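Before relying on records like the one below, remember that each one covers exactly one chain. Contacts with other chains, cofactors or solvent are not represented anywhere in the record.
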Amino acid sequence: MSVNQTQRETPLEILARRFASGEITAEEYERVRDLLQGGGKS
């Protein structure tokens, strides 16, 4: 992947790619997704 493609990815796309590649667990994916979408617990 080129630098330009990486710069165009949204945070949610990066998160999904990391989950799909096995870098993060389902629990981590859901927690960060919720935070990125504004549903995080304070």
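Helices lie at 3-8, 11-20, 26-36.
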